[in-house]
Design a protein that fits this description.
This protein is an alpha/beta fold. The chain folds into two domains: about 5-50 and about 310-415, Aspartate Aminotransferase, domain 1, CATH 3.90.1150; about 70-305, 3-Layer(aba) Sandwich (Aspartate Aminotransferase, domain 2). It has helices spanning about 5-10, 25-35, 55-65, 80-95, 120-135, 150-155, 175-180, 205-220, 240-245, 275-285, 295-305, 305-330, 360-375, 400-420, and strands spanning about 45, 115-120, 140-145, 160-165, 185-195, 220-225, 250-255, 270, 340, 345-350, 375, 380, 390-395. The strands form three sheets. Strands 2-8-7-6-5-3-4 form a seven-stranded mixed beta sheet, sandwiched between helices. Strands 9-10-13-12 form a four-stranded antiparallel beta sheet. A two-stranded parallel ribbon has the order 1-11.
């Protein structure tokens, strides 16, 4: 066979990725950027990324680390001071008094650095956990709507994601009873996310405790994605670390991307039983190796320079709260436009099911219309397996959020009014 013939043969995806779908949230952001580059004044409410600069004290710490020579390989699981800081914070969270559970019902042992694996973002931490915990024949329950990558990560682990749809009356959150009804003898775990992407809903202590009790009774693994834990408005969001009666089958994932405006630094981590941590470290050693050294030192500053971090995080959350409140006031003036009340994260989830469409995917039809006709990018709910919804992110400057949401409300009125 000639070289030309080899080069011209069509690419056939391997079985590993043949069913893999592109991230819809990334695709929407890329489309918005392309339209902006062509000269259109697109307002991007699709991207799930804080619009703030990384705080100056973190940037200075990174520069000091560069000057000190932090440019080489680190330990595969992360530098020891960072893992110690993560373990310290997790221990304080797990052992502190809280209104949701009795300390006697929780493990008293501290979280140790041997339970912490630092990765290139919480996305890799989640993938690592799925890959070492689940395999062919396993089923994993996913409260739905949930972040689109959960389903793909589970599939890449050769397991089967089982969506469990929440009720709109409950903010699209699921109950322990719903999870139990969706389980089979093949169920091996559940992925939780609170505050939730895409809805902004927050599970109460009672709701989360009931799910953890069910998982313990059924011997399931629980992966708790808590990347938005510090971004709440009306009340703190409980962590699985604060409620679990045992940590033996619990993996908690977090990072600095959302809370400290550090998405591009790519630092996340998983806290798990030591055997799972060792497995994730081994997996990481054959894929990405360690997370970037400079980024680890930046994250260390975010966790250890507490006074500066508290001021920066509070200022960002306060700005998000102002945007959220203004957005809710605007939505309440839009007749017939139902939405999930966001108690955390920085998303609005709107029910556009009344928009006429031939294929039943109202969210995609609406997202296409509002981008093509009104220059606003939003994410269709089909990305989260709820096709009658769309997700908007208020992680954009105040004036853009207000203008973009105004256009979205107007577009909904145009489409539904024309149908009526």
């Amino acid at each position: 066979m000639t070289d030309l013939a080899v080069r011209s043969r069509a690419y056939t995806p391997s079985a590993n990725v043949s069913q893999l779908k592109e991230s819809a949230t990334v695709a929407v952001s890329a489309r918005a950027k392309a339209l902006r580059a062509s000269g259109r004044q697109v307002i991007d409410l699709g991207v799930g990324e804080p619009d703030f600069d990384t705080p100056a004290f973190i940037r200075r710490a990174a520069q000091r680390a560069i000057d000190a020579g932090a440019t080489r390989y680190t330990a595969m699981e992360g530098i020891l001071p960072l893992r110690q800081a993560i373990a310290r914070d997790a221990t304080e969270l797990a052992l502190a008094p809280n209104p949701w559970s009795d300390p006697a019902d929780r493990p008293s042992a501290p979280v140790t650095e041997g339970q912490v694996v630092v990765s290139t973002g919480s996305k890799q931490s989640l993938f690592n956990a799925c890959f070492v915990l689940f395999g062919a024949g396993d089923e994993v329950l996913v409260p739905t709507p949930s972040w689109t990558s959960y389903y793909e990560m589970i599939a890449l682990a050769r397991a089967t994601a089982v969506p469990v749809l929440g009720e709109p009356e409950r903010g699209l959150k699921v109950t322990a009873e719903q999870l139990a009804a969706s389980a089979t003898p093949r169920t091996r775990g559940v992925i939780l996310n609170s505050p939730c992407n895409p809805t902004g809903a927050v599970y109460s202590g009672e709701e989360l405790a009931a799910i953890l009790e069910l998982a313990a009774a059924r011997d399931w693994w629980v992966i708790s994605d808590e990347i938005y834990l510090q971004i709440t408005y009306d009340a703190p969001a409980p962590s699985a670390l604060q409620l679990a009666r045992s940590r033996d089958r619990l993996v908690v994932v977090n990072g600095v991307a959302k809370s400290h405006a550090m998405t591009g630094w790519r630092i996340g981590w998983a806290i798990s039983p030591p055997a799972v941590a060792r497995a994730m470290t081994a997996l990481q050693s054959h894929t990405t190796s360690n997370a970037a050294a400079v980024s680890q030192h930046a994250a260390l500053a975010a966790l250890t320079e507490r006074d500066e971090a508290e001021v920066a995080v509070r200022a960002m959350v306060d700005r998000f709260r102002t945007r959220r409140d203004a957005a809710i006031a605007m939505l309440r003036e839009a007749p017939g436009l139902r939405f999930v009340h966001p108690d955390g994260a920085f998303y609005l989830y709107l029910d556009v099911g009344q928009v006429p469409t031939a294929d039943g995917d109202a969210g995609t039809a609406f997202a296409r219309y509002v981008l093509d006709r009104h220059d606003v990018a939003v994410v269709p709910g089909s990305a989260f397996l709820t096709p009658r919804w769309v997700r908007l992110a208020y992680a954009a400057p105040d004036d853009q959020v207000a203008a973009g949401l105004s256009r979205v409300v107007a577009a909904y009125g145009d489409l539904v009014g024309a149908a009526g």
